[in-house]
Amino acid sequence: MIAAANRLRGFCGACFGMVIKMINVAIVGTGNISNLHIQGLLCFPDRCKIVALCDIFPEKAERIKEKYGLREAQVFDDHEAMLRAGLPIDLVHVCTPPSSHAKVAIHVMNAGCHTLVEKPMAPSLIECDGMLKAEADNKVVMGCIAQNRFRNSISKLKKVLDSGLAGKLRCAHINSLWWRGHSYYDLWWRGTWEKEGGGPTLNHAVHHIDMLNWFQGGLPVEVSSMLANVMHDNSEVEDLSFAALRYRDGSVAEVTSSVVHHGEEQGLVLQAEKAKIAAPWSCAAELAQPNGFPAAGHNPELMKELNAYYQSLEDLKYEGHTGEIDDVLSALEQGRRPMITGADGRRTVELITAIYKAGFEKCTVSLPIDRMDEYYTLEGIQKNATHFYQKSRSVTNLDSDQEISVGNYS
Ligand SMILES: NC(=O)c1ccc[n+]([C@@H]2O[C@H](COP(=O)([O-])OP(=O)(O)OC[C@H]3O[C@@H](n4cnc5c(N)ncnc54)[C@H](O)[C@@H]3O)[C@@H](O)[C@H]2O)c1
């Protein structure tokens, strides 16, 4: 119906491989993160227009409409009603809580629209599979938010790794260290296996795990982990996890996922054959003396070369959500897939699922995860997950005028 409406407007319709000119966008879920989506979209007024805003609390959508002066946007309280309303919508941004991503995105794609889904793609692999099937069946395009690939420090680190100057990656330390106060988990959908789908391993480290998969070019073959909740007694889910990963080529990685770290010193440290490279940017390179101990003065030539290469790399035109939105709009304009696809989103969920299974079962998990595995479904995860605490306090909304932060990527 929507693709047909697009054809009436003289566009090519929401179909993969076909080119769209002015892209009509709807946002479903007008809470915190919708601000970054709208601010990003508003950077490209010649390429897209926000035509609909939807929230189960329509007054929140009205507030957002007024805040950004989106006079042409129609407000809805139900995404299915929005899809039935006959508006010419090409692209729907799904900014609702994680447990609703699959349902909303599948409805959107079945209605013939492209979609950009907030992280995590969904809390379970079976939902990710359903989303990928809807994308293929409807010949539309799904992008998944992993906006931190569009950070100067991260995209330059990837380029340095790909240059081969440091040699092959052998050991990665991934510090997804965040801090959230006690009231964070008071919001109705947070802190439950059912609605949030997990703690920081799923909802915060999802960013760094996406980057790790991007740097490694694939998933590990073995995962072990330990999960804990050390500071948030209004939450069923973990607030801290440590995972150890082994790859097919023998290289390894460790991932710490946390919302208990004061200072939020996030970063990635990549130990490669010839040098260490890291975000925030630093590098180090050793040379061995004949006795195997590091030579005084290190390897200044390689460090100079690495620093010079890093400094020569151009900054991105747009960072964060705006960078990813620019890429998704370009993909639709050019009839190609976006840089971060549903397959990427699913890969990240698969590694996170393995971390949960390894932690709860106290075992080493092999990847890929089998379709018959109980952890393939959200029900299976819920059944097997440790419920660290009973969530006893729940509020409908936290103050939406207060600042949120989305990470440190200097
Ligand atoms: N990429 C990032 O850096 C980043 C940062 C924060 C949050 N997020 C993600 O964004 C999503 C939303 O998080 P948030 O912090 O904005 O939460 P939020 O609670 O502030 O906003 C979610 C909004 O969705 C609405 N909603 C819930 N179910 C709905 C439905 N079925 N249909 C329509 N509206 C619905 C809620 O009323 C709320 O207004 C989550 O998936 C979260 O993980 C991403």
Key structural traits:
410 residues; 8-stranded mixed beta sheet; 6-stranded parallel beta sheet; single chain; 34% helix; alpha/beta; binds nicotinamide-adenine-dinucleotide; disordered N terminus; globular
What's the number of helices? Answer: 13
The secondary-structure class comes to alpha/beta
Molecules bound to protein: nicotinamide-adenine-dinucleotide
Form type: globular
Share of β-strand residues: 15-25%
Summarize model confidence as the mean pLDDT: 94
Question: Which regions have little confidence, pLDDT < 50, spanning 5+ residues?
Answer: 1-13
Largest sheet: 8 strands, mixed
**Helix amount:** 25-40%
What is the first-to-last residue Cα distance?
45 Å
The count of strands amounts to 14
Question: What sequence of helices (H) and strands (E) makes up the elements?
Answer: HEHEHEHEHEHEHEHHEEEEEEHHHEH
Strand order in the sheet with the most strands? 13-12-11-7-10-9-8-14
Radius of gyration: 22 Å
Structure overview:
- With 410 residues, the chain is an alpha/beta fold.
- Helix content is 34%, strand content 18%.
- It is built from 13 helices and 14 strands.
- It has an eight-stranded mixed beta sheet. A six-stranded parallel beta sheet has the order 3-2-1-4-5-6, sandwiched between helices.
- Helix 2 links the parallel strand 1 and strand 2.
- Helix 2 crosses helix 11.
- The N terminus is likely disordered.
- Nicotinamide-adenine-dinucleotide binds next to loops.
